[in-house]
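> call design_seq(struct)
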């Protein structure tokens, strides 16, 4: 079974040896409440020091206690939203998972980082593409529909247009804003390099006031190294809009007008 955009349909042909992960689950069986609702997850991502990675998502290899296997690409790191109950520090099959990551993404040069842990279902991050055991995926997607949540089922909504948007702005740039997409929304960080340190507090206050004017919440975290003078977050559903940056454009237009007026006095 495969769900997602055509670009990653190769996932349905991926197979991996899940024996090490099943053994990991079995070793913790007596300590896991509702054992069958736990999975072992290997998550891999590119170890890049600069932003704008060629692959800004997370590759995941998932195994159930019954050795049902799933391969999926997620927006966030699953273990960042659902902390691992147990972690495997020495993953014997690490090189094999990295080889599969390179095969899937066609990225042969950059270094991959992998981590492994046991997580209780349901997973909380959205998957843009997923493939694997039909019974497991159908059951989980049905459960998500009943409870009004999205994880594996989000892949049903990802067409080529949505994927292009995610790839561009997952860790990208929009005008003078750095963009970071996570499962909470589309986060924008204003990085105005024309503003000197002397006036940074003043323009930070301007951004804060404009954010309130356009009913935008501040970003909850700052995962970037640039000097940020303000931030705001668009709701996740914004990515499906025909004009996702409409409020941002108006806010930035107001900001430039105010900055121009202030400049007259200095």
């Amino acid at each position: 079974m495969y769900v997602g955009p055509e670009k990653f349909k190769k996932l349905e042909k991926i197979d991996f040896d899940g024996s090490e992960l099943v053994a990991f689950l079995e070793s913790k069986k007596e300590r896991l409440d509702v054992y069958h609702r736990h999975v072992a997850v290997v998550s891999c991502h590119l170890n890049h020091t600069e932003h704008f990675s060629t692959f800004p998502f997370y590759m995941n290899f998932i195994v159930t206690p019954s050795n049902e296997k799933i391969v999926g690409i997620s927006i966030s790191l699953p273990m960042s939203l659902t902390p691992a109950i147990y972690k495997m520090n020495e993953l014997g099959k690490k090189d094999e998972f990295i080889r599969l990551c390179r095969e899937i993404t066609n990225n042969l040069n950059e270094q991959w980082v992998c981590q492994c842990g046991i997580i209780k279902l349901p997973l909380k991050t959205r998957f843009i593409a997923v493939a694997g055991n039909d019974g497991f995926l159908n059951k989980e997607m049905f459960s998500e529909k009943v409870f009004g949540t999205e994880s594996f089922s989000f892949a049903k909504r990802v067409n080529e247009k949505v994927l292009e948007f995610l790839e561009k702005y997952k860790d990208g740039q929009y005008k003078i804003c750095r963009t970071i997409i996570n499962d909470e929304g589309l986060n924008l960080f204003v990085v105005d390099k024309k503003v000197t340190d002397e006036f940074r507090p003043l323009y930070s206050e301007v951004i804060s006031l404009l954010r309130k004017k356009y009913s935008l919440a501040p970003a909850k975290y700052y995962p970037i190294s640039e000097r940020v003078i303000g931030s705001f977050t668009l709701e996740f559903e914004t990515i499906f809009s025909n004009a996702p940056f409409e409020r941002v454009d108006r806010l930035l237009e107001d900001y430039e007008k105010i900055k121009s007026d202030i400049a007259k006095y200095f």
